[in-house]
């Protein structure tokens, strides 16, 4: 009986663990996503990790679109991510004047690979 309860408890713990799929390897990115990675390195990497699940100056962005909500509680979709990038939020500065529309599209394409 104790074995059965232990096994059920172990299975319950495993069922409750939700891991996010790893990011797409950089070697597998298409041209748009690779350019988005370059934009990320130039504008985002100093504050956000992209391939490590740890906070830097801002939250990690690994799996940002694989979760239903952003760290702010807003839905994890292109509209909300774009608004955060362009207008800023809390400690994040607005990047609207430093990222052109094509770079922003490429950045979003890259973020979808995380």
Description:
This protein has 114 residues and is mostly helical. It is 43% helix and 0% strand. It contains four helices and no strands. It has helices spanning 2-16, 31-43, 78-87, 101-111. Helix 2 (31-43) packs across helix 4 (101-111).
Rg over CA atoms: 18 Å
Which structural class fits the helix and strand makeup? Answer: mainly alpha
Distance between the termini: 43 Å
> What is the percentage of strand-forming residues?
under 5%
- Report helical residue fraction: 40-55%
Number of helices: 4
* Major sheet attributes: none
3D shape: globular
The residue-averaged pLDDT reads 87
Order of helices and strands: HHHH
Number of strands: 0
Q: Uncertain runs with pLDDT below 50, 5 residues or more?
A: 3-17
List the helices and strands and how they pair.
Blueprint: H1 2-16, H2 31-43, H3 78-87, H4 101-111
Summary?
This protein is an all-alpha fold and 114 residues long.
Characteristic key phrases:
114 residues; mainly alpha; 0% strand; globular; disordered N terminus
